[in-house]
User: Fold this.
Amino acid sequence: MVTAELLAGLAAVLDWQVLAFLGAGVCLGAVFGALPGLTATMGVAVLTPLTFWVSPEQGLAMLLGIYCGAIPAGGIPAILINVPGTPASIATSWDGYALTRKGKAGLALGINALASAAGQLTSIAFLAFLAFPIASFALRFGPAEYFGLALLGISLMAGVSGDRVLQGMLAGSLGLALALVGLDPMTAYPRYTFGLSEFLDGISFVPVMIGLFGLGEVLSQVSERRARAKAARIEIGRVVPKAADAKSLLGSTLSGAGVGTMVGAIPAAGGDIGSVIAWEQARRTSKDKGQFGKGSLRGLAASCSACNAAIGGAMTTMLTLGIPGDAVSAILIGALLIHGIQPGPLLFANNQAFVFSIVFLLVFACLMIMAVGLLGARPLAKVLSVPPPLLWAGIIVFGTVGSYALNNAVADVWAMYAAGLVGFVFRRARIPLGPLVLGLILGPMMESNLRRALILSGGDWLALVARPIVAVFLAAAVLSIAWPWIRSRRSASRSNLGPPSSA
Amino acid sequence: MRAGRSVGVLSAGILLAACSAPQGPYPAREIKLIVQAAPGGTSDTVSRVMASLAESRLGVPIVCENRPGASGALAFSFVARRSPDGYTIGHAPVEIAIVRSLGYADIGPSDVSLICLVSKTAPALVVQADAPWLTFEEFITEAKGGSGGVVMANSGIGSIWHFNILLMEQGTGARFTHLPYGGSTPALVSVIGGHSDGAVAGVGEVVSHVQSGTLRALAVFDAERSSVLPDVPTTHELGYPIGTPAWSGFFGPAGIDEERVAQLADAFEVAFGSPEWAKLCRERGMQPLFLGREDFESFALQQQQFFEEQVPKLVRLGAP
Assistant:
């Protein structure tokens, strides 16, 4: 029975027109993903109406192609110019750009393509075999669990700050403070809006990201130009990692895929959070912690893998429950409904062939974008040989246009410029930017869900901790903040007092 | 890509605006339709489908542009500030009658040229599919007995579905604990996951979950039964005449030439009669309803008055 459905699903996909639409989607997605300001969500949303006039398989192939193409492509500008193409690729920029500065841009792009594909394929395997257990786990996420997840994410601020923990915490607090701007999530009272309607929805995250990383980097390079007058020779290096390297990356890639799938399956949590958690997890379990953020291959593999695994996670929740796992799958549900397909538990029971054809479409899309990523690595890395002034101008133009295009709002362009200045000042003062971004992304999630959880528990704080998933998250958060301190105490006691008599 | 295009369109628009005389055949060039919500949602789909259907009647392209934010207040104010030449119009959802009462922007139906109304969406009360309450009455009884023990997820304070929950409290004497979310989807997910007991959202938003067996609809807040949920009783037949719908229409800046408004309304009426529109309404659980300019005006002003009266009574904005 199942094999018949499986073959029927495969047959529906193995049609040259469907594959052509898939390929077109992947290429379009790569463009949307690689241009900062244009996101996967926007690509899928804008092209959904176009799919009304083709068959459901063709339309779906195109939309899934965009989705699968955009996320790995978002890592490309993150690696080459330190500007994440989509919010999911923030963690990719930490190690990826460091590798580029070391003349290993080719290798970074190669790992991005391979680890992204590995992450996506792993998560698709989870979708094919464990869809219902994952979905029921995702449904258990109530306000208290979201609060725990957000708090865990925020506690990673210390980890992503490298050796500048105090400054990182400062930046993180600024991010949390900025996250307070806008309508109060529980009472709809305007906070810090200065009477401007533009501030009612809070500070848009994507323009801030473009400003902090893109414009901030440009300004700091301009100001350092004199010091680095003899521009470093541009090296691309090898693209495909050596067999030994690849083997050592397998562990962090797979654990990244696991984290990414689970976080992606939870509604309203996606690749951006997943990849940061995966990066920190890889760092903590690694022997060369000092390398993370300075060009660690493992850190890069974990973050690339996780942000792509979130796709399979989000699709799992969408197909099994009819609930969007992220913004893109929300739009995909609308597109499926238009074609008369109802995602939900009944889809798995009544139309298994269709589920399998989605699985195969995802697999093919994933292989296509991997090929694009590997073949495109060298030509794309040529962007580095563009004279810096031209590259800077290009980043500023694309950043400005991209910030405006997001909501067609001039306020977002100003936010991008302001964030650019902040990014520049922070770079000069050697204050890490990662925590600021974490605070800005996770602040609203933490605040609104804490307050929802307290409404549900009648103001009882202890009731939050009594839930098992929350307790695990909170324990991990405490550990992640206390760990550097515990470790330094342990090593101090060892060096001062000799071997401790008891653990 | 889109941005590049809209920049091009903008500059072309400025050039044309500078050259063309105010009197002349209308429409002579592309019309811009401002959508107050992000791409992908109901407002966006309604606008894009209507735009593509009305284009052929007008003979010029209608290009949609999304300007989300502040419950639509940003888009309403943006359109209201354009020149009233009929080349910039906007999608008018029920929020255009609410944002002033909420204090988001000083704009309402009386400050713009209304064109026509094309659809209405009734609210529906849903609970988890295996919840103990099988009827509206049972749910209300539970909510009356407990002291705020029944948790209602809403799609945000001041949203149209939140008002309907408040009207339900007012009309039935039930008392709920309100759990605000940032939209209908997370509110419904919260009910499906068993984190809250019930929610009110548009019929079109709940129908897929009801059909796939994760949610149960207890009542539709309307006078007539919904065509997509025909087995679900209405509040009116249950003896509680409560509920206020969401709707979709179109508007432009105040002072558009009456003939141009009539031309636009005519094009949208032709689009309204198409099978594509009927199909979209069926899929999205919207009730197709066409009101021409005058009828839409009196309906929208009535709605504005309703919310001006109700908002201060229902929502204590900013109160802890």
Q: What stands out?
A: The radius of gyration of chain A is 22 Å. DSSP finds 20 helices and two strands in chain A.
